[in-house]
Design a protein that fits this description.
eight-stranded mixed sheet, alpha+beta, 409 residues, single chain, binds adenosine monophosphate, 40% helix
């Protein structure tokens, strides 16, 4: 778990602001759920997922409740839906931290942030297109270019279970030729064997049955409609038959965004899909859902690699250098901040030289200097930090003067 210091932290906030701006324009409202939930909320995601079996931060609290820090947010959204029964379609977005007990490495942390959306109560393939397009738009707004969209359909639950049976048969027949890790995965979830990056597994994965051959007519029509919509929006995609993703409840459309500059083990910037049954499992009515979650840290790594979305410290309009004791700086900064200007100051009545050094380092456009003469004459010296003549401005005019100057910029 990491500390995020300024100015990087400002970039995090900006990231969330850009995301909120993109999705609020499409009618999504923010849902804020607790950081922890009853453990059962997450175990409903599925017993065969690593997130649930290995990575949960769970503990018993003082009231002897077995609770867990959230490892992702879809389950919390479905729990909230089941609890509050809002009208559908319910379009929400979220932003915040999740916790997974993973082996930390670049792009993989035990506390990490995600932004995402979920829509509950609509089965329309156009909705699948809408939410994929929103993520696509968000990456574009960040300035990222090297993002690849991969899509697949897991079919209807029946298609999927027939497929899982066929996969199991296929991989069981491979016997010891499969890696030991994949043989263990096979017992729990044959779909996840397709995720294996181990070279010994690759020929067996390549020869495995394909999900598309198991799609029912309905599932195939839904997937086709999604692809038609993506093409209509000129969003490039690749169909990846091996894409399965973790959640046991996924059905029909699933998708992932991969960063072109990232290491292949950690190149998933985000992903999502359609799911069924999760709301029901959490005590609500049968409700179709679809959503995605995008990882903040990994996306920012991709931004670093592409040299886009750089951290930008808040620009200061002015830095007050008061060498008369500091009280004048108290009222001057308060007045200017009230007028909407970003203003900082020196403390501890340090020397002119020391405070000017701070003013320089602050990046402020102007230093506002108050010495004994200025204090007794009711003036302030305005010194442009990027060079140019300094001017003397009446104390009573300073706010209007600086406001006019920052409006010009
Ligand atoms: P998931 O919920 O596992 O599908 O993850 C969605 C996205 O969240 C991934 O594509 C990553 O960008 C990000 N993510 C998941 N786990 C971590 C982690 N441990 N550290 C950093 N980012 C993560």
């Amino acid at each position: 778990m990491r500390d995020i210091l300024p100015p990087e932290s400002g970039r995090w906030r900006h990231f969330t602001d850009v995301f909120a701006d993109v999705v609020e324009r499409a009618g999504y409202g923010q849902l804020i759920t607790p950081l922890l939930e009853d453990l059962g909320v997450f175990t409903r995601i599925g017993d065969a997922t690593d997130v649930v079996t290995k990575e949960m931060y769970d503990f018993v609290d003082k009231g002897r409740r077995h609770i867990a820090l959230r490892p992702e947010m879809t389950a919390s959204v479905c729990r909230a839906f089941a609890e509050h029964r809002p009208t559908t379609p319910w379009k929400v977005f979220y932003a915040g931290s999740n916790f997974r007990y993973e082996k930390p490495q670049r792009g993989r942390y035990r506390q990490f942030d995600q932004v995402g959306v979920e829509v509950l109560g609509a089965d329309d393939p156009n909705l699948d297109v809408e939410i994929i397009a929103l993520a696509w738009e968000f990456y574009a707004r960040l300035g990222l270019r090297q993002v690849a969209l991969i899509v697949n359909s897991l079919g209807e639950p029946d298609d999927r279970s027939r497929y899982v049976d066929a996969l199991r048969d296929h991989f069981v027949a491979c016997g010891d030729a499969l890696s030991e890790q994949s043989r263990a995965t096979l017992d729990r979830n044959p779909l996840r064997v397709l995720d294996s990056k181990r070279s010994v597994d690759q020929p067996h994965i390549a020869s495995a049955p394909r999900i598309a051959d198991f799609h029912s007519d309905d599932a195939a029509a839904h997937f086709d409609a999604v692809l038609v919509g993506l093409r209509a929006l000129d969003i490039p995609f690749t169909i990846e038959p091996k894409l399965v993703r973790g959640l046991d409840y996924y059905r029909r459309t699933i998708f992932e965004f991969q960063g072109g500059t990232l290491d292949s083990a950690q190149n998933a910037l985000g992903g999502g899909g359609r799911y069924d049954g999760l709301v029901e499992a959490l005590g609500g009515p049968p409700t179709p859902g679809i959503g995605f979650a995008l990882g903040l840290e990994r996306t920012l790594l991709a931004c670093d690699d592409e040299g886009v979305f750089a951290p930008a410290p808040t620009p200061l309009a002015a830095f007050v250098v008061d060498v008369t004791g500091g009280l004048e700086a108290v009222s001057l900064t308060a007045e200017l901040r009230r007028a909407g200007l970003a203003v900082d100051r020196g403390y501890d009545n340090r020397s002119m030289k020391a405070q000017m050094k701070l003013a320089n380092r602050s990046g402020a456009a102007f230093a506002l200097i108050v010495g004994d003469d200025e204090l007794s004459n009711g003036n302030v010296i305005v010194k442009p930090m990027q060079g140019g003549e300094q001017v003397v401005v009446a104390r009573s005019e300073i706010s209007a003067y600086l406001t006019a100057l920052s409006d010009q910029n």
